[in-house]
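Bench notes, bay 3.
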Amino acid sequence: MLSPGRRWALALVYLGLVHITSSFAPGPTGFIPLAGVDKLVHLCEFGALALVFWRPVRETAPPRHPELRVAAVLFLFVAVNGVLDEFHQSFVPGRHASWADAAADALGARAALFWLLHREKARVSGSSGI
Protein backbone atom coordinates (compact mmCIF):
# COMPACT_ATOMS: atom_id res chain seq x y z
CA MET A 1 0.00 0.00 0.00
CA LEU A 2 1.41 3.37 -0.98
CA SER A 3 1.15 6.35 1.32
CA PRO A 4 -0.70 9.43 0.00
CA GLY A 5 2.61 11.26 -0.42
CA ARG A 6 4.02 8.42 -2.51
CA ARG A 7 0.86 8.34 -4.63
CA TRP A 8 1.27 12.05 -5.34
CA ALA A 9 4.95 11.51 -6.12
CA LEU A 10 4.12 8.67 -8.53
CA ALA A 11 1.48 10.78 -10.28
CA LEU A 12 3.80 13.79 -10.61
CA VAL A 13 6.68 11.65 -11.88
CA TYR A 14 4.39 10.12 -14.51
CA LEU A 15 3.21 13.60 -15.53
CA GLY A 16 6.84 14.67 -15.87
CA LEU A 17 7.64 11.62 -17.98
CA VAL A 18 4.72 12.37 -20.30
CA HIS A 19 6.08 15.84 -20.97
CA ILE A 20 9.73 14.75 -21.15
CA THR A 21 9.02 12.05 -23.73
CA SER A 22 7.41 14.63 -25.99
CA SER A 23 10.76 16.46 -26.06
CA PHE A 24 12.35 13.77 -28.23
CA ALA A 25 12.22 13.94 -31.99
CA PRO A 26 11.03 10.77 -33.71
CA GLY A 27 13.53 8.53 -35.46
CA PRO A 28 14.11 8.68 -39.24
CA THR A 29 11.08 6.47 -39.97
CA GLY A 30 8.82 8.01 -37.32
CA PHE A 31 8.10 6.79 -33.84
CA ILE A 32 5.17 4.52 -34.65
CA PRO A 33 5.06 2.86 -38.08
CA LEU A 34 1.32 2.09 -38.30
CA ALA A 35 -1.19 4.82 -39.14
CA GLY A 36 -3.55 5.57 -36.28
CA VAL A 37 -1.52 3.75 -33.66
CA ASP A 38 -0.20 7.08 -32.40
CA LYS A 39 -3.77 8.04 -31.41
CA LEU A 40 -4.08 4.81 -29.44
CA VAL A 41 -0.80 5.63 -27.69
CA HIS A 42 -2.11 9.09 -26.80
CA LEU A 43 -5.37 7.60 -25.54
CA CYS A 44 -3.56 5.11 -23.30
CA GLU A 45 -0.91 7.55 -22.11
CA PHE A 46 -3.38 10.19 -20.96
CA GLY A 47 -5.89 7.61 -19.71
CA ALA A 48 -3.10 6.31 -17.48
CA LEU A 49 -2.40 9.89 -16.39
CA ALA A 50 -6.01 10.21 -15.21
CA LEU A 51 -5.74 6.84 -13.44
CA VAL A 52 -2.56 7.68 -11.52
CA PHE A 53 -3.97 11.05 -10.39
CA TRP A 54 -7.41 9.70 -9.38
CA ARG A 55 -6.58 8.33 -5.96
CA PRO A 56 -4.33 11.13 -4.66
CA VAL A 57 -6.81 13.75 -5.88
CA ARG A 58 -9.78 11.82 -4.45
CA GLU A 59 -8.01 11.41 -1.10
CA THR A 60 -7.22 15.12 -0.78
CA ALA A 61 -10.59 16.42 -2.02
CA PRO A 62 -12.95 17.61 0.70
CA PRO A 63 -15.16 14.72 1.87
CA ARG A 64 -18.34 16.36 0.60
CA HIS A 65 -17.11 16.51 -3.00
CA PRO A 66 -18.74 13.73 -5.00
CA GLU A 67 -16.67 11.58 -7.31
CA LEU A 68 -18.26 13.17 -10.36
CA ARG A 69 -16.96 16.61 -9.40
CA VAL A 70 -13.49 15.21 -8.76
CA ALA A 71 -13.62 13.43 -12.12
CA ALA A 72 -14.64 16.65 -13.90
CA VAL A 73 -11.76 18.60 -12.38
CA LEU A 74 -9.34 15.78 -13.14
CA PHE A 75 -10.62 15.56 -16.72
CA LEU A 76 -9.94 19.27 -17.21
CA PHE A 77 -6.48 18.90 -15.68
CA VAL A 78 -5.54 16.00 -17.98
CA ALA A 79 -7.09 17.61 -21.08
CA VAL A 80 -5.23 20.88 -20.44
CA ASN A 81 -2.01 18.90 -20.02
CA GLY A 82 -2.71 17.24 -23.36
CA VAL A 83 -3.05 20.63 -25.04
CA LEU A 84 0.08 21.91 -23.29
CA ASP A 85 1.96 18.80 -24.39
CA GLU A 86 0.95 19.42 -28.01
CA PHE A 87 1.95 23.09 -27.71
CA HIS A 88 5.33 22.02 -26.32
CA GLN A 89 5.80 19.60 -29.23
CA SER A 90 5.38 22.47 -31.69
CA PHE A 91 8.79 23.74 -30.53
CA VAL A 92 10.57 20.38 -30.80
CA PRO A 93 12.39 19.83 -34.13
CA GLY A 94 10.83 16.92 -35.99
CA ARG A 95 7.59 17.08 -33.97
CA HIS A 96 4.38 18.97 -34.58
CA ALA A 97 1.28 19.90 -32.62
CA SER A 98 -1.96 18.16 -33.52
CA TRP A 99 -5.49 18.87 -32.35
CA ALA A 100 -6.31 15.23 -33.15
CA ASP A 101 -3.64 14.12 -30.66
CA ALA A 102 -5.04 16.52 -28.03
CA ALA A 103 -8.50 15.07 -28.67
CA ALA A 104 -7.14 11.53 -28.23
CA ASP A 105 -5.54 12.65 -24.95
CA ALA A 106 -8.89 13.98 -23.70
CA LEU A 107 -10.72 10.87 -24.88
CA GLY A 108 -8.25 8.68 -22.98
CA ALA A 109 -8.84 10.69 -19.82
CA ARG A 110 -12.59 10.51 -20.30
CA ALA A 111 -12.56 6.74 -20.83
CA ALA A 112 -10.38 6.13 -17.77
CA LEU A 113 -12.51 8.39 -15.57
CA PHE A 114 -15.73 6.83 -16.85
CA TRP A 115 -14.34 3.41 -15.90
CA LEU A 116 -13.30 4.68 -12.45
CA LEU A 117 -16.73 6.22 -11.80
CA HIS A 118 -18.45 3.02 -12.92
CA ARG A 119 -16.17 0.99 -10.67
CA GLU A 120 -16.86 3.30 -7.72
CA LYS A 121 -20.62 3.10 -8.29
CA ALA A 122 -20.44 -0.70 -8.46
CA ARG A 123 -18.33 -0.81 -5.28
CA VAL A 124 -20.85 1.31 -3.39
CA SER A 125 -23.81 -0.76 -4.64
CA GLY A 126 -22.02 -4.00 -3.78
CA SER A 127 -21.60 -5.49 -7.25
CA SER A 128 -18.32 -6.56 -8.83
CA GLY A 129 -17.83 -3.48 -11.06
CA ILE A 130 -15.97 -5.37 -13.74
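Next record in the batch:
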Amino acid sequence: AIVGQRVLNKNYKEINIRIAFNPITEKFDVLNKALQNSSEWINSINPIINDEITISKARRDYMDVNPEADEELIEQRIEELKKIKNKQVGIIELDHSLDIDTVTEIFIRINQKGVVLSNADFVMSKIAADELHGGNKMRKMVDYFCRLVVDKDFNKHIIDNDKEFASHDYYKTIKWMSAGSDDLYIPDYIDFLRVAFTFKFNRGKFSDLVALLSGRNFETRSYENEIAKKSYAMLSEGLNEFANQTNYQRFLMIVKSAGLINHKLISSKNSLNFSYALYLKLRKDGMQETETHQFVKKWLVMSLLIGRYSGSSESMIDEDIKQIQEKGIKDYLIHMEQTHLGEGFWDFGLVSDLETSSVNNNAYNVYLAAQCNSNATAFLSKSMKISSLIEQRGDVHHIFPKKYLVKNRYTPKQYNQVANFVYTEQATNIKVGAMAPNEYMAKVKSEISAGIINVSTIDSETILSENLINNDIPLALASSDHSEYENFLAERRKLMARKIKEYYENL
Protein backbone atom coordinates (compact mmCIF):
# COMPACT_ATOMS: atom_id res chain seq x y z
CA ALA A 1 0.00 0.00 0.00
CA ILE A 2 2.89 2.37 0.76
CA VAL A 3 4.22 2.15 -2.79
CA GLY A 4 0.79 2.06 -4.39
CA GLN A 5 0.42 -1.67 -4.96
CA ARG A 6 -2.92 -3.39 -4.52
CA VAL A 7 -3.31 -5.36 -1.28
CA LEU A 8 -5.57 -8.18 -0.12
CA ASN A 9 -8.42 -7.51 2.27
CA LYS A 10 -9.79 -10.07 4.75
CA ASN A 11 -11.92 -11.58 1.98
CA TYR A 12 -8.86 -12.11 -0.24
CA LYS A 13 -9.99 -9.42 -2.67
CA GLU A 14 -7.41 -7.05 -4.15
CA ILE A 15 -8.12 -3.44 -3.22
CA ASN A 16 -6.36 -0.09 -3.53
CA ILE A 17 -5.46 1.60 -0.26
CA ARG A 18 -4.15 5.17 -0.23
CA ILE A 19 -1.94 6.10 2.69
CA ALA A 20 -2.25 9.72 3.83
CA PHE A 21 0.44 11.65 5.72
CA ASN A 22 0.35 14.69 7.99
CA PRO A 23 3.80 16.32 7.81
CA ILE A 24 3.07 18.54 10.81
CA THR A 25 2.22 15.73 13.25
CA GLU A 26 4.15 13.03 11.30
CA LYS A 27 1.14 10.73 11.41
CA PHE A 28 0.05 8.19 8.79
CA ASP A 29 -3.49 6.97 8.21
CA VAL A 30 -5.61 5.25 5.60
CA LEU A 31 -7.22 7.96 3.50
CA ASN A 32 -10.87 8.66 4.29
CA LYS A 33 -13.27 11.50 3.50
CA ALA A 34 -12.36 13.46 6.62
CA LEU A 35 -8.65 13.38 5.81
CA GLN A 36 -9.32 14.07 2.14
CA ASN A 37 -11.12 17.28 3.12
CA SER A 38 -8.34 18.38 5.48
CA SER A 39 -5.61 20.54 3.95
CA GLU A 40 -3.14 19.39 6.63
CA TRP A 41 -2.97 15.91 5.14
CA ILE A 42 -1.14 14.82 1.98
CA ASN A 43 -3.78 12.56 0.44
CA SER A 44 -1.39 9.95 -0.93
CA ILE A 45 2.26 9.29 -0.19
CA ASN A 46 2.66 7.06 -3.27
CA PRO A 47 3.79 9.77 -5.76
CA ILE A 48 6.45 10.95 -3.28
CA ILE A 49 7.70 7.47 -2.42
CA ASN A 50 7.79 6.40 -6.07
CA ASP A 51 9.61 9.53 -7.33
CA GLU A 52 6.63 10.60 -9.42
CA ILE A 53 6.96 14.15 -8.06
CA THR A 54 9.95 15.98 -6.60
CA ILE A 55 10.26 17.03 -2.99
CA SER A 56 10.11 20.69 -3.98
CA LYS A 57 6.90 20.10 -5.96
CA ALA A 58 5.32 18.28 -3.00
CA ARG A 59 6.41 21.12 -0.67
CA ARG A 60 4.97 23.81 -2.95
CA ASP A 61 1.67 21.94 -3.32
CA TYR A 62 1.40 21.64 0.46
CA MET A 63 2.26 25.29 1.12
CA ASP A 64 -0.32 26.45 -1.45
CA VAL A 65 -3.12 25.12 0.78
CA ASN A 66 -1.30 25.62 4.11
CA PRO A 67 0.38 29.06 3.74
CA GLU A 68 0.91 29.44 7.50
CA ALA A 69 2.89 26.20 7.84
CA ASP A 70 6.65 26.24 8.47
CA GLU A 71 7.98 25.71 4.93
CA GLU A 72 11.41 24.51 6.05
CA LEU A 73 9.86 21.98 8.44
CA ILE A 74 7.47 20.70 5.75
CA GLU A 75 10.35 20.14 3.32
CA GLN A 76 12.32 18.30 6.01
CA ARG A 77 9.36 16.04 6.82
CA ILE A 78 8.74 15.25 3.14
CA GLU A 79 12.43 14.40 2.72
CA GLU A 80 12.16 11.98 5.66
CA LEU A 81 8.99 10.53 4.15
CA LYS A 82 10.78 9.87 0.85
CA LYS A 83 13.45 7.85 2.66
CA ILE A 84 10.95 5.52 4.29
CA LYS A 85 11.16 2.82 1.62
CA ASN A 86 14.90 2.47 2.27
CA LYS A 87 14.56 2.10 6.03
CA GLN A 88 15.08 -1.28 7.66
CA VAL A 89 12.15 -2.74 9.53
CA GLY A 90 12.88 -2.79 13.24
CA ILE A 91 14.27 -6.00 14.69
CA ILE A 92 13.89 -6.94 18.33
CA GLU A 93 16.27 -9.57 19.63
CA LEU A 94 14.91 -11.74 22.44
CA ASP A 95 16.99 -13.69 24.92
CA HIS A 96 17.25 -17.34 23.86
CA SER A 97 16.30 -18.48 27.37
CA LEU A 98 12.77 -17.04 27.16
CA ASP A 99 10.02 -19.67 27.14
CA ILE A 100 7.72 -19.88 24.13
CA ASP A 101 4.67 -18.57 26.03
CA THR A 102 6.56 -15.36 26.83
CA VAL A 103 7.69 -15.00 23.21
CA THR A 104 4.09 -15.45 22.04
CA GLU A 105 2.88 -12.80 24.49
CA ILE A 106 5.56 -10.36 23.29
CA PHE A 107 4.51 -10.98 19.68
CA ILE A 108 0.86 -10.22 20.46
CA ARG A 109 1.60 -7.14 22.60
CA ILE A 110 3.95 -5.56 20.06
CA ASN A 111 1.20 -5.72 17.46
CA GLN A 112 -1.75 -4.76 19.66
CA LYS A 113 -1.74 -1.12 18.57
CA GLY A 114 -2.53 -2.06 14.97
CA VAL A 115 -4.63 -4.96 13.79
CA VAL A 116 -5.25 -7.12 16.85
CA LEU A 117 -3.23 -10.30 16.46
CA SER A 118 -3.64 -13.64 18.19
CA ASN A 119 -1.86 -16.91 18.86
CA ALA A 120 -3.08 -18.07 15.44
CA ASP A 121 -1.16 -15.22 13.80
CA PHE A 122 1.95 -16.25 15.70
CA VAL A 123 1.49 -19.84 14.50
CA MET A 124 1.22 -18.60 10.91
CA SER A 125 4.35 -16.47 11.33
CA LYS A 126 6.23 -19.37 12.88
CA ILE A 127 5.41 -21.90 10.18
CA ALA A 128 6.04 -19.32 7.43
CA ALA A 129 9.60 -18.85 8.73
CA ASP A 130 10.27 -22.59 8.89
CA GLU A 131 12.02 -24.19 5.92
CA LEU A 132 13.57 -27.15 7.74
CA HIS A 133 10.22 -28.92 8.21
CA GLY A 134 8.39 -27.40 5.25
CA GLY A 135 6.38 -24.97 7.34
CA ASN A 136 6.76 -22.26 4.68
CA LYS A 137 4.91 -24.46 2.19
CA MET A 138 2.22 -25.27 4.78
CA ARG A 139 1.68 -21.55 5.20
CA LYS A 140 1.18 -21.19 1.45
CA MET A 141 -1.20 -24.13 1.42
CA VAL A 142 -3.38 -22.48 4.07
CA ASP A 143 -3.33 -19.05 2.42
CA TYR A 144 -3.89 -20.36 -1.09
CA PHE A 145 -6.75 -22.67 -0.13
CA CYS A 146 -8.59 -19.93 1.76
CA ARG A 147 -8.19 -17.59 -1.18
CA LEU A 148 -9.38 -20.21 -3.69
CA VAL A 149 -12.56 -20.58 -1.62
CA VAL A 150 -13.52 -17.00 -2.52
CA ASP A 151 -11.51 -16.35 -5.68
CA LYS A 152 -11.42 -19.19 -8.23
CA ASP A 153 -9.28 -17.20 -10.68
CA PHE A 154 -6.42 -17.20 -8.17
CA ASN A 155 -5.54 -20.71 -9.35
CA LYS A 156 -4.04 -19.23 -12.52
CA HIS A 157 -1.91 -16.91 -10.40
CA ILE A 158 -0.49 -19.90 -8.50
CA ILE A 159 0.33 -21.77 -11.71
CA ASP A 160 1.91 -18.73 -13.39
CA ASN A 161 3.76 -17.21 -10.43
CA ASP A 162 4.54 -19.98 -7.94
CA LYS A 163 5.68 -22.91 -10.04
CA GLU A 164 7.52 -24.49 -7.12
CA PHE A 165 4.34 -24.71 -5.06
CA ALA A 166 2.30 -25.74 -8.11
CA SER A 167 4.51 -28.83 -8.39
CA HIS A 168 4.11 -29.73 -4.70
CA ASP A 169 1.68 -32.30 -3.31
CA TYR A 170 0.01 -29.54 -1.26
CA TYR A 171 -1.16 -27.92 -4.49
CA LYS A 172 -2.56 -31.23 -5.71
CA THR A 173 -4.59 -31.38 -2.49
CA ILE A 174 -6.09 -27.90 -2.77
CA LYS A 175 -6.45 -27.29 -6.52
CA TRP A 176 -9.94 -28.85 -6.61
CA MET A 177 -11.23 -25.79 -4.76
CA SER A 178 -10.58 -23.69 -7.88
CA ALA A 179 -13.66 -25.41 -9.33
CA GLY A 180 -15.53 -25.88 -6.05
CA SER A 181 -18.59 -23.81 -5.27
CA ASP A 182 -20.18 -23.48 -1.85
CA ASP A 183 -20.77 -20.50 0.42
CA LEU A 184 -21.98 -22.52 3.41
CA TYR A 185 -18.51 -22.73 4.95
CA ILE A 186 -15.93 -20.08 4.10
CA PRO A 187 -12.90 -20.85 6.27
CA ASP A 188 -10.14 -18.35 6.87
CA TYR A 189 -6.61 -19.25 7.95
CA ILE A 190 -7.63 -19.40 11.62
CA ASP A 191 -10.44 -21.86 10.87
CA PHE A 192 -8.12 -23.99 8.71
CA LEU A 193 -5.49 -24.14 11.46
CA ARG A 194 -8.02 -24.73 14.22
CA VAL A 195 -9.64 -27.73 12.56
CA ALA A 196 -6.33 -29.33 11.57
CA PHE A 197 -4.77 -28.75 14.99
CA THR A 198 -7.78 -29.84 17.04
CA PHE A 199 -8.22 -32.98 14.94
CA LYS A 200 -4.58 -34.14 14.90
CA PHE A 201 -3.39 -33.06 18.34
CA ASN A 202 -6.57 -33.46 20.44
CA ARG A 203 -5.94 -29.98 21.84
CA GLY A 204 -7.69 -26.66 21.39
CA LYS A 205 -5.28 -23.93 22.45
CA PHE A 206 -3.06 -22.39 19.79
CA SER A 207 -0.47 -21.61 22.46
CA ASP A 208 0.01 -25.39 22.76
CA LEU A 209 0.58 -25.65 19.01
CA VAL A 210 3.20 -22.90 19.17
CA ALA A 211 4.92 -24.80 21.97
CA LEU A 212 4.79 -28.14 20.13
CA LEU A 213 6.16 -26.65 16.92
CA SER A 214 8.99 -25.29 19.06
CA GLY A 215 9.66 -28.80 20.40
CA ARG A 216 8.09 -28.40 23.83
CA ASN A 217 7.99 -31.55 25.98
CA PHE A 218 5.08 -30.82 28.32
CA GLU A 219 6.16 -33.50 30.79
CA THR A 220 9.82 -32.51 31.21
CA ARG A 221 9.25 -28.84 30.32
CA SER A 222 12.19 -29.01 27.95
CA TYR A 223 12.52 -28.50 24.20
CA GLU A 224 13.42 -31.36 21.86
CA ASN A 225 14.07 -31.25 18.12
CA GLU A 226 12.33 -34.59 17.63
CA ILE A 227 9.08 -33.21 19.08
CA ALA A 228 9.24 -30.20 16.74
CA LYS A 229 9.82 -32.50 13.76
CA LYS A 230 6.92 -34.76 14.76
CA SER A 231 4.63 -31.77 15.40
CA TYR A 232 5.25 -30.29 11.95
CA ALA A 233 4.55 -33.69 10.40
CA MET A 234 1.29 -34.00 12.34
CA LEU A 235 0.22 -30.49 11.39
CA SER A 236 0.93 -31.29 7.75
CA GLU A 237 -1.29 -34.37 8.00
CA GLY A 238 -4.06 -32.33 9.62
CA LEU A 239 -3.93 -29.64 6.94
CA ASN A 240 -4.06 -32.27 4.20
CA GLU A 241 -7.07 -33.95 5.79
CA PHE A 242 -8.87 -30.61 6.13
CA ALA A 243 -8.33 -29.69 2.47
CA ASN A 244 -9.04 -33.17 1.11
CA GLN A 245 -11.91 -32.83 -1.35
CA THR A 246 -13.77 -35.94 -0.19
CA ASN A 247 -13.55 -35.00 3.49
CA TYR A 248 -14.54 -31.39 2.89
CA GLN A 249 -17.51 -32.12 0.67
CA ARG A 250 -18.81 -35.02 2.78
CA PHE A 251 -18.70 -32.82 5.86
CA LEU A 252 -20.72 -30.10 4.13
CA MET A 253 -23.18 -32.75 2.99
CA ILE A 254 -23.65 -33.76 6.64
CA VAL A 255 -24.23 -30.13 7.64
CA LYS A 256 -26.84 -29.64 4.92
CA SER A 257 -28.55 -32.93 5.75
CA ALA A 258 -29.18 -31.48 9.22
CA GLY A 259 -31.19 -28.66 7.61
CA LEU A 260 -28.37 -26.13 7.98
CA ILE A 261 -28.53 -25.25 4.31
CA ASN A 262 -27.37 -21.63 4.46
CA HIS A 263 -24.56 -19.89 6.32
CA LYS A 264 -27.00 -17.45 7.92
CA LEU A 265 -28.50 -20.35 9.91
CA ILE A 266 -25.10 -21.06 11.48
CA SER A 267 -24.40 -18.44 14.11
CA SER A 268 -21.02 -19.82 15.22
CA LYS A 269 -18.12 -20.54 12.84
CA ASN A 270 -16.38 -22.40 15.66
CA SER A 271 -19.32 -24.80 15.93
CA LEU A 272 -18.62 -25.68 12.30
CA ASN A 273 -14.88 -25.86 12.93
CA PHE A 274 -15.20 -28.19 15.89
CA SER A 275 -17.74 -30.37 14.10
CA TYR A 276 -15.39 -30.72 11.13
CA ALA A 277 -12.53 -31.66 13.46
CA LEU A 278 -14.85 -34.18 15.11
CA TYR A 279 -15.82 -35.63 11.74
CA LEU A 280 -12.16 -36.09 10.76
CA LYS A 281 -11.37 -37.62 14.14
CA LEU A 282 -14.23 -40.14 14.07
CA ARG A 283 -13.31 -41.17 10.52
CA LYS A 284 -9.69 -41.62 11.54
CA ASP A 285 -10.80 -43.69 14.55
CA GLY A 286 -12.63 -46.03 12.18
CA MET A 287 -16.22 -45.28 13.20
CA GLN A 288 -18.93 -46.37 10.76
CA GLU A 289 -20.04 -43.62 8.39
CA THR A 290 -23.70 -43.67 9.49
CA GLU A 291 -22.76 -43.38 13.15
CA THR A 292 -20.23 -40.65 12.38
CA HIS A 293 -22.87 -38.60 10.57
CA GLN A 294 -25.29 -38.90 13.49
CA PHE A 295 -22.77 -37.79 16.12
CA VAL A 296 -21.47 -34.90 14.02
CA LYS A 297 -24.99 -33.58 13.34
CA LYS A 298 -26.03 -33.86 16.97
CA TRP A 299 -22.87 -32.18 18.20
CA LEU A 300 -23.18 -29.35 15.70
CA VAL A 301 -26.81 -28.61 16.52
CA MET A 302 -26.27 -29.00 20.27
CA SER A 303 -23.33 -26.59 20.23
CA LEU A 304 -25.36 -24.04 18.26
CA LEU A 305 -28.36 -24.34 20.56
CA ILE A 306 -26.42 -23.74 23.77
CA GLY A 307 -23.92 -21.29 22.26
CA ARG A 308 -21.07 -23.60 23.23
CA TYR A 309 -18.40 -21.78 21.25
CA SER A 310 -19.62 -18.19 21.38
CA GLY A 311 -17.18 -15.59 22.65
CA SER A 312 -13.78 -16.86 23.76
CA SER A 313 -14.02 -20.46 22.67
CA GLU A 314 -10.51 -21.91 22.92
CA SER A 315 -10.96 -23.29 26.43
CA MET A 316 -14.25 -24.97 25.46
CA ILE A 317 -12.71 -26.47 22.32
CA ASP A 318 -9.76 -27.72 24.36
CA GLU A 319 -12.01 -29.24 27.02
CA ASP A 320 -14.37 -30.90 24.54
CA ILE A 321 -11.75 -32.54 22.33
CA LYS A 322 -9.86 -33.85 25.36
CA GLN A 323 -13.05 -35.25 26.91
CA ILE A 324 -14.02 -36.91 23.62
CA GLN A 325 -10.54 -38.41 23.37
CA GLU A 326 -10.79 -39.72 26.94
CA LYS A 327 -14.45 -40.82 27.16
CA GLY A 328 -15.45 -41.33 23.54
CA ILE A 329 -18.01 -39.28 21.66
CA LYS A 330 -21.00 -41.39 22.70
CA ASP A 331 -20.49 -41.06 26.46
CA TYR A 332 -19.40 -37.44 26.31
CA LEU A 333 -22.38 -36.43 24.16
CA ILE A 334 -24.69 -38.10 26.69
CA HIS A 335 -22.94 -36.12 29.43
CA MET A 336 -23.42 -32.87 27.51
CA GLU A 337 -27.09 -33.60 26.87
CA GLN A 338 -27.73 -34.41 30.52
CA THR A 339 -25.92 -31.24 31.58
CA HIS A 340 -27.33 -28.78 29.04
CA LEU A 341 -30.39 -30.31 27.34
CA GLY A 342 -32.53 -31.51 30.22
CA GLU A 343 -36.30 -31.06 30.43
CA GLY A 344 -35.79 -27.64 31.97
CA PHE A 345 -33.99 -26.51 28.84
CA TRP A 346 -36.65 -27.80 26.43
CA ASP A 347 -39.66 -26.64 28.47
CA PHE A 348 -38.38 -23.31 29.78
CA GLY A 349 -34.88 -22.30 28.66
CA LEU A 350 -35.49 -22.76 24.95
CA VAL A 351 -38.92 -21.12 25.11
CA SER A 352 -37.28 -18.16 26.84
CA ASP A 353 -34.55 -18.03 24.17
CA LEU A 354 -37.29 -17.67 21.54
CA GLU A 355 -38.64 -14.59 23.29
CA THR A 356 -36.62 -12.20 21.17
CA SER A 357 -36.88 -9.80 18.25
CA SER A 358 -33.42 -10.73 16.95
CA VAL A 359 -33.31 -13.07 13.96
CA ASN A 360 -29.60 -13.63 14.72
CA ASN A 361 -30.67 -15.90 17.52
CA ASN A 362 -29.34 -19.43 18.04
CA ALA A 363 -32.72 -20.94 18.90
CA TYR A 364 -34.53 -19.28 16.00
CA ASN A 365 -31.87 -20.30 13.48
CA VAL A 366 -32.00 -23.91 14.68
CA TYR A 367 -35.80 -23.74 14.37
CA LEU A 368 -35.43 -22.74 10.72
CA ALA A 369 -32.98 -25.61 10.24
CA ALA A 370 -35.60 -27.94 11.73
CA GLN A 371 -38.15 -26.71 9.20
CA CYS A 372 -35.69 -27.23 6.33
CA ASN A 373 -34.86 -30.67 7.68
CA SER A 374 -38.53 -31.67 7.66
CA ASN A 375 -39.01 -30.19 4.16
CA ALA A 376 -41.85 -28.00 5.46
CA THR A 377 -43.87 -25.83 3.10
CA ALA A 378 -44.10 -22.08 3.54
CA PHE A 379 -47.00 -20.52 5.44
CA LEU A 380 -50.23 -20.63 3.38
CA SER A 381 -48.43 -22.29 0.49
CA LYS A 382 -49.25 -25.67 -1.03
CA SER A 383 -45.86 -26.44 -2.55
CA MET A 384 -43.25 -23.72 -1.93
CA LYS A 385 -40.62 -25.08 0.47
CA ILE A 386 -39.17 -22.98 3.27
CA SER A 387 -35.73 -24.24 2.29
CA SER A 388 -36.20 -22.79 -1.20
CA LEU A 389 -37.13 -19.37 0.18
CA ILE A 390 -34.10 -19.38 2.49
CA GLU A 391 -31.78 -20.37 -0.36
CA GLN A 392 -33.35 -17.67 -2.55
CA ARG A 393 -32.77 -15.20 0.29
CA GLY A 394 -36.48 -14.64 0.67
CA ASP A 395 -37.70 -12.46 3.52
CA VAL A 396 -39.59 -13.52 6.59
CA HIS A 397 -43.06 -12.05 7.04
CA HIS A 398 -45.30 -11.27 9.98
CA ILE A 399 -48.14 -13.63 10.94
CA PHE A 400 -49.84 -10.71 12.68
CA PRO A 401 -49.08 -8.13 9.95
CA LYS A 402 -46.71 -5.34 10.91
CA LYS A 403 -48.99 -2.54 9.66
CA TYR A 404 -51.90 -4.04 11.54
CA LEU A 405 -49.96 -4.13 14.81
CA VAL A 406 -48.50 -0.65 14.29
CA LYS A 407 -52.04 0.66 13.82
CA ASN A 408 -52.85 -0.87 17.20
CA ARG A 409 -49.88 0.82 18.89
CA TYR A 410 -47.45 -2.10 19.11
CA THR A 411 -43.72 -1.30 19.21
CA PRO A 412 -41.06 -2.74 16.86
CA LYS A 413 -39.78 -4.97 19.66
CA GLN A 414 -43.29 -6.40 20.04
CA TYR A 415 -44.28 -6.92 16.41
CA ASN A 416 -40.82 -8.17 15.39
CA GLN A 417 -40.81 -11.10 17.80
CA VAL A 418 -39.40 -14.17 16.01
CA ALA A 419 -42.51 -16.08 17.07
CA ASN A 420 -44.43 -13.71 14.79
CA PHE A 421 -42.25 -14.58 11.79
CA VAL A 422 -42.90 -17.09 9.02
CA TYR A 423 -41.50 -17.70 5.58
CA THR A 424 -44.23 -17.20 3.00
CA GLU A 425 -44.44 -16.31 -0.66
CA GLN A 426 -44.27 -12.61 -1.52
CA ALA A 427 -47.62 -12.69 -3.33
CA THR A 428 -49.35 -14.09 -0.26
CA ASN A 429 -47.78 -11.50 1.99
CA ILE A 430 -48.92 -8.66 -0.28
CA LYS A 431 -52.50 -9.93 -0.40
CA VAL A 432 -52.64 -10.37 3.38
CA GLY A 433 -51.60 -6.73 3.67
CA ALA A 434 -52.68 -5.18 6.97
CA MET A 435 -55.57 -7.54 7.69
CA ALA A 436 -56.06 -9.03 11.13
CA PRO A 437 -55.36 -12.80 11.26
CA ASN A 438 -59.06 -13.62 11.75
CA GLU A 439 -59.84 -11.61 8.59
CA TYR A 440 -57.27 -13.11 6.24
CA MET A 441 -57.75 -16.65 7.59
CA ALA A 442 -61.51 -16.32 7.01
CA LYS A 443 -60.78 -15.15 3.47
CA VAL A 444 -58.43 -18.11 2.85
CA LYS A 445 -61.07 -20.57 4.03
CA SER A 446 -63.82 -18.97 1.94
CA GLU A 447 -61.57 -19.09 -1.14
CA ILE A 448 -60.86 -22.78 -0.51
CA SER A 449 -64.61 -23.45 -0.36
CA ALA A 450 -65.15 -21.50 -3.58
CA GLY A 451 -62.20 -23.17 -5.33
CA ILE A 452 -60.36 -19.86 -5.73
CA ILE A 453 -56.56 -19.50 -5.57
CA ASN A 454 -55.82 -15.96 -4.44
CA VAL A 455 -54.43 -15.17 -0.98
CA SER A 456 -53.16 -18.72 -0.54
CA THR A 457 -52.22 -21.49 -2.96
CA ILE A 458 -53.74 -24.10 -0.64
CA ASP A 459 -56.83 -25.77 -2.08
CA SER A 460 -58.22 -27.90 0.77
CA GLU A 461 -59.04 -27.55 4.48
CA THR A 462 -56.95 -30.66 5.22
CA ILE A 463 -53.84 -29.19 3.60
CA LEU A 464 -54.48 -25.89 5.39
CA SER A 465 -54.57 -27.66 8.78
CA GLU A 466 -51.36 -29.52 7.95
CA ASN A 467 -49.73 -26.28 6.87
CA LEU A 468 -50.55 -24.58 10.17
CA ILE A 469 -49.24 -27.57 12.12
CA ASN A 470 -46.03 -27.77 10.08
CA ASN A 471 -45.41 -24.06 10.66
CA ASP A 472 -46.19 -24.43 14.38
CA ILE A 473 -49.09 -21.99 14.18
CA PRO A 474 -51.63 -22.20 17.03
CA LEU A 475 -55.01 -23.15 15.56
CA ALA A 476 -56.55 -20.23 17.44
CA LEU A 477 -54.99 -17.92 14.84
CA ALA A 478 -58.13 -18.27 12.70
CA SER A 479 -60.16 -16.39 15.32
CA SER A 480 -57.48 -13.99 16.60
CA ASP A 481 -57.16 -10.24 16.51
CA HIS A 482 -54.53 -8.05 18.19
CA SER A 483 -56.01 -8.62 21.65
CA GLU A 484 -54.83 -12.25 21.40
CA TYR A 485 -51.35 -11.38 20.16
CA GLU A 486 -49.38 -11.99 23.38
CA ASN A 487 -51.17 -15.29 24.02
CA PHE A 488 -50.44 -16.30 20.44
CA LEU A 489 -46.72 -15.58 20.87
CA ALA A 490 -46.52 -17.56 24.11
CA GLU A 491 -48.23 -20.57 22.54
CA ARG A 492 -46.19 -20.47 19.34
CA ARG A 493 -42.90 -20.32 21.24
CA LYS A 494 -43.84 -23.58 22.95
CA LEU A 495 -44.71 -25.18 19.62
CA MET A 496 -41.44 -23.97 18.09
CA ALA A 497 -39.47 -25.35 21.04
CA ARG A 498 -41.24 -28.69 20.68
CA LYS A 499 -40.34 -28.75 16.97
CA ILE A 500 -36.67 -28.12 17.80
CA LYS A 501 -36.66 -30.89 20.41
CA GLU A 502 -38.19 -33.43 18.01
CA TYR A 503 -35.75 -32.36 15.32
CA TYR A 504 -32.72 -32.78 17.58
CA GLU A 505 -33.83 -36.15 18.91
CA ASN A 506 -34.35 -37.48 15.38
CA LEU A 507 -30.99 -36.37 13.99
